[in-house]
Amino acid sequence: MPLEPFFSGAGIDRADALRARPGEIAALARRSDALTLSWSDGAPALDEDGRLRWEKLDDLPPLFLGLEGGSPRFSALADGTVPLGPRAHFALLGQLDASDAPLFAAALSLANWHRRHGFCSACGVPTLANRGGWSRGCSECGAEHYPRVDPVVIMLAEHHGRVLLGRQPHYPPGRFSALAGFVEVGETIEAAVARELHEEAGIRVHAVTYLASQPWPFPSSLMIGAHAVALDDRLTVDTTELDDARWFTRAEVIAALAAEAGAAFLPPPRFAIARTLLDRWADGLK
Amino acid sequence: MPLEPFFSGAGIDRADALRARPGEIAALARRSDALTLSWSDGAPALDEDGRLRWEKLDDLPPLFLGLEGGSPRFSALADGTVPLGPRAHFALLGQLDASDAPLFAAALSLANWHRRHGFCSACGVPTLANRGGWSRGCSECGAEHYPRVDPVVIMLAEHHGRVLLGRQPHYPPGRFSALAGFVEVGETIEAAVARELHEEAGIRVHAVTYLASQPWPFPSSLMIGAHAVALDDRLTVDTTELDDARWFTRAEVIAALAAEAGAAFLPPPRFAIARTLLDRWADGLK
Question: By residue range, what is the domain housing residue A185?
Fold first, then answer.
């Protein structure tokens, strides 16, 4: 069984059929075992063990997250504070228990989406949350808007036993990671992998293979991990996107993952799918 | 080499670095070899050979599609007519040359997105197209909005040599196809496959495998094709989503794909990724 990304797993039962039945959601909220997510600094709050923190409900919160072992779970739209932003949240991810990661991601993405989508994109009037917080409806033009999930390809290009990694300007010193970019309209996953590698590193690839996926709630990406075989190793780095891009040997990657002194680079953290891709590649799983 | 979905391929060079340089885009539009897409009934127009139809430019169209063999390609935001809707467009897809399919999908998805996103979802004021039509910016709150690409899982569940197919209410008589559903926030591709099969057919699955992907411009999905192994074959069909769902043997699928008289069902059309998944499954490729 290959290594799984950090944000994997079913999470709770989303009980999506209930979303269309507001009376039943309201009844669930009145149950004594109903709980609502705690928020802190614009993100779901964690206890000392890295588990999500839950509270008793005072009233009906706008988001119905689902059923956890039969117990109804809800959430507010964050806590009204200005979110700390991705970098502070990354510190939180270092403590998050993997079993709560899918629900953490769902709640954070949903709350951020509501905050950025209070108005109808088709006609400009305010919208209202529907379906237990899983859509927003426009009373003016009738449009129904659903939360965004933005597919992103993230890939290891390989050439004769070396792997291509790059540095984004905001990375901590020494960090290299897999190249990535948004899938655009009209593209397959495989075409997006080839286009992004050509745009960012100037290489042509073939034999694109899907490896794994994970949600990434900053704000609401679906990271799609892939492997590609590069036709040659001459790089033309797009310096508007990347500080640097280089080929690394398997020995260099293994040393970096083991955090050896003098390793060639600092690898991505365990909650990034790029780390899972590198772990698998180091194990020879491609 | 396994069969590829209809909407596969690189399409034209999107030349995305130019999107940030409006002066260069305007200069490209003045070139004698610049062309703009023809539209008819809200979709890109086709000539008799199923190729996209192009015209000379009068002024600078809002969408910069890229470079085709060096020749600049543009598009209007459709033709201002009310679109005929997906069913009429399916007839068009039956004539569309596969080599033009990625560009057809990109242009149609982009045009539909602009039509539904004239206002800022964060503050409600009108937005303006930016970056050669690849984003819309809000002059009031500064938000930049990008075209939606909505990931959808579409999957063949298999149990002891039989495959699960379902009927949506709007299908033509006899049609069965792969089950499908939108990936939600907080989910991996694999978790979405398992959730949708449980919601729509009541089955539990394991061993979810990625097979292929294709864009689907109605309005802007990324179809992600997968295979899953069902733990048992007892179905509980969600009749709010499906008219019916049934298990079919490989012999039944092969007969249906060959359009044999008396075949158990009518298969999906060649431009649907479900057809590619069934073609591969019939070939024993999973």
Answer: 150-282
| pLDDT, tens only, A228-284 | 999 999 999 999 999 999 999 999 999 999 999 999 999 999 999 999 999 999 998
Structure-block tokens of residue B143:
């938000």
pLDDT tens digits, one per residue of B219-267: 999 999 999 999 999 999 999 999 999 999 999 999 999 999 999 999 9
pLDDT reading at A161 higher than 90: yes
Query: Quick one: B99 and B123 in the same domain?
Result: no
Give SS3 for A228. strand
Whether A182 contacts chain B with CB within 8 A: yes
A100: nearest CA partner in chain B? B186
Which candidate, B110, B10, B112, places its Cα nearest to that of B67? B10
Six token digits for residue B210: 């990625």
Residue A63 has a CB neighbour count (10 Å cut-off) of: 21
Which among B274, B212, B234, B281 is positioned nearest to B253, based on CA atoms?
Answer: B281
* CATH code for the domain of B225: 3.90.79.10
Q: How distant is the Cα of A169 from the closest Cα of chain B, in angstroms?
A: 18
Q: A141 near A247, Cβ under 8 Å? A: no
CB contact under 8 A, A113 and B210: no
Length of chain A: 286
**In terms of C-beta density within 10 A (0-12 exposed, 13-18 middle, 19 or more buried), how is residue B58 classed?**
exposed
